[in-house]
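Hypothesis: this fold can be encoded by more than one sequence.
Test: take the structure tokens below, design a sequence, compare later.
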């Protein structure tokens, strides 16, 4: 009797190990599979009430990311825009900043893609007042993530004449939103390394 129970426990343990191994293997990919993000069609302009950015983030999701989405794992992308005042005598000073969060999920029952957009971090539960829309395809949902359409990145009052200022734009996949068991490994996996960083001069807009 004891031998039978021990055999069942070992079989259960082996099954769990094999399952976790397959799950982790889905997320670990070779270094050459890195995602590359490029900014195209960028336009930074000054309006009556602020500075607006329009552009397109050109990149494709890796097979591992698409596979993770299809298995029900949500992905969160973060876009940040910060106005920095350059100082030769000390660290550059952050003058203002705005964020945009995108939480993308797949709904197997309806076979549709759900995208929530918010200016504040989106939690896995209790989405609150975030703006959510459904799409027929992953490509349609990603087109919203990748298109920057007159995003107000700063108020006009932050612009100062004769002061060196720049706008730092960052975009990344937020790995901290993944289950803790997967966060460490994916930080070292280039297949999950979706990020972009570019700066724009603001002196001309301040005139």
């Amino acid at each position: 009797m004891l031998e039978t129970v021990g055999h069942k426990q070992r079989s259960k343990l082996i099954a769990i190990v094999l399952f976790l191994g397959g799950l982790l293997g889905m997320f670990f990919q070779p270094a050459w599979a890195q995602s590359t993000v490029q900014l195209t069609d960028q336009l930074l302009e000054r309006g009556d009430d602020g500075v607006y950015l329009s552009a397109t983030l050109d990149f494709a999701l890796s097979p591992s990311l698409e596979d993770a989405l299809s298995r029900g794992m949500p992905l969160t992308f973060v876009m940040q825009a910060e106005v920095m005042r350059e100082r030769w005598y000390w660290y550059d000073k952050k003058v203002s900043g705005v964020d945009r969060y995108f939480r993308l999920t797949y709904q197997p029952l309806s076979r549709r893609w759900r995208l929530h957009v918010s200016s504040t971090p989106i939690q896995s539960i209790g989405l609150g007042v975030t703006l959510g829309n459904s799409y027929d395809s992953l490509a349609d949902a990603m087109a919203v993530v990748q298109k920057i359409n007159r995003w107000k990145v700063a108020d006009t009052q932050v612009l100062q004449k004769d002061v060196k200022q720049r706008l730092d734009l960052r975009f990344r996949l937020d790995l901290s939103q993944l289950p803790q068991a997967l966060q460490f490994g994916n930080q070292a996996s280039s297949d999950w390394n979706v990020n972009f960083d570019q700066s724009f001069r603001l002196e001309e807009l301040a005139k």
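Confidence is low (pLDDT under 50) at residues 1-8, 13-34. The chain has one domain: 2-206.
Hypothesis status: open.
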